[in-house]
Amino acid sequence: MSLEDNFNFEDFRRVAKKKLPAPIFHYIDGGSDDEVTLKRNTDSFSKCDLVPNILASVGEPDLSTKVLGSKIDMPLFLSPVAMQRLFHHEGDKASARAAEKFGTFYSMSTMATSSIEEIANTASGPKMFQIYIHKTQGLTDNLIDRCKSSGFNAMCLTVDTIVAGNRERDHKWGFTTPPKLTLKSLMSFATHPMWTINYLTHEKFQLPNVSQFVKKSSSIAKGVMEYINEQYDPAMSWKDAEYCIKRWGGPFALKGVMSVEDAKRAIDIGASAIMLSNHGGRQLDGSRAPFDQLEKIVDAVGGKIEIIVDGGIRRGTHVLKALSLGATACSFGKGFLFALSAGGQKGVEIMLQRMKEELRRDMILLGKKNIGDLSKENLAFRD
Fold first, then answer.
1. Which is the catalytic residue, given 89, 192, 279, 318?
2. What distance in Å separates the CA atoms of residue 291 and residue 348, rounded to the nearest whole number?
3. Distance CA 145, CA 180 (A)
4. 3-41+68-360: which CATH number, 3.40.50.300, 3.30.110.70, 2.60.40.420, 3.20.20.70?
5. Nearest C-alpha neighbor of 70 from the set 247, 251, 248
6. The whole model's pTM is what?
7. Is residue 279 annotated as a catalytic residue, yes or no?
8. I need a labelling partner for 29 at 20 to 30 A (CA). Which of 18, 23, 75, 367 fits?
């Protein structure tokens, strides 16, 4: 089947499941514990309906918006995701080039398999770096300073991963970084020879942004949960976040904010934006979906800080519902990861094109000329 025959999230997910060894696929696809929150993230968008206005003479709608100091051509961008080299041998470079082509943010994880400098030389579009607070002293400063030197446009601090969620699919399938053969995973790697050949014949798996500080990160195979619990600082505090904001000195988001109280405090420490996120349902299972918290947080801090919805985005209508409630923009991870797994840069480009087409079409059907025209008035909530 041609990549062009993939029209939506589920199409790309099916192709990715065929192409990826089971440990790799389930690392993308899974959540924590019973995966209640994972499912809720998308289901939450069904609680309200879109109400169109007719005969609005929309013409060609303007999908652009401004977020984190940069104008982007569509109100959706790529979330930061670790270890993209595992999903396709081009990894972050493919994602960055695809995002640049569509005029939107590429976001780089601390745990990327390309270096900050390499990505800066790969794509010239807007770029955000996502940072974790490690126990290793000096690593935070090193990452911030390298991003400054490399011309990154924005930064975010992930605040909801001070310990690893209980990702039982990773336990079941023995997911490690880099992958290693176990009795359980051997058959899956053997039955996906193209992935295995590409993995073995292209550049070696590494985590270049942290490897000089955290030797274990690239020298031994280990589970992601084990790495998080060993290396991330569980004592991370608001002072750490404020320190990062001041040292960076530019557009800065806190990723993982879910309460009104924390949204207000983010303003107090000088954050430019908050990303409403539960880490794709991979951390605290049973927690709220970002869309479910959006209205309450907009009512409390809307207009004082940018609000990005990250979690459960599958369709253009999901983006438009979030924007109608007051979000500045949205980001997605699983959606572009399955496309990356299915076809590298071309796969991500097709996924972004599908989402852009949906946004354009749905804006016309709603009777809205630009993103600023969206409001609660074009939503009706179910009882």
1. 279
2. 24
3. 33
4. 3.20.20.70
5. 251
6. 0.93
7. yes
8. 75
